[in-house]
Amino acid sequence: MDAPKVIDFSKFNGPVYTGRERGVRLRAELNLDAADTSANVVDVVIPDGTYTVTSSFFLGLFGPSVVSAGSKDRFYQRYRFVAPSFLRPEMDGYVARALQEKNLFA
C-alpha cells in the first residue's frame, strides 16, 4: 500500500466550501473515482479556520464515494477526516443522507 493521498481543503479557497458543482468539479480534479477503487487511504484535512462545508459541496465531492463504500464505517475507513469538531456531526449527517438517497449519485 502506498502513502495516503491527502486532500487539503486549505488549497481550495475556503473558509466556506459550498456548491454541488464545485464539489463535483473538485472530485474530478482529484480523481476520487480512482481513489474509491484503490487500496489506499485518503486523508482529508479541513483547516481549523473553516466556517462551513455545506451538504451540497460535501455530497458533490464525496457522495459517490459514500455510495461506493456502502456504509458510513467503510467510507470513514477509506477517507480519514481531520476537521474542526463542530463539522463532524454535520459530515456524519451528509454521509447518512448519501446512503439514504443513493440514486442522487448514480
Low-confidence stretches: none
Shape: globular
Whole-number tally of structural domains:
1
- Cα distance spanning the termini: 28 Å
The largest sheet has its strands arranged as 1-3-5
DSSP helical segment count? 5
Instruction: Determine the oligomeric state from the structure.
Output: single chain
- The value of Rg in angstroms is 13 Å
Name the helix and strand elements from N-terminus to C-terminus, one letter apiece.
Answer: EEHHEEHHEH
User: How many strands in all?
Assistant: 5
Provide the β-strand percentage band.
15-25%
The helix content is: 40-55%
Structural class: alpha/beta
The major sheet is characterized as:
3 strands, parallel
What's the overall average pLDDT, rounded? Answer: 91
Account of the protein in words:
The chain is α/β, with parallel strands linked by helices. The protein has one domain. About 50% of the residues lie in helices and about 15% in strands. It is built from 5 helices and 5 strands. A 3-stranded parallel sheet has the order 1-3-5. The chain has a two-stranded parallel ribbon with strand order 2-4. Helix 1 packs across helix 3 and helix 3 crosses helix 4. The chain is globular, with a radius of gyration of 13 Å.
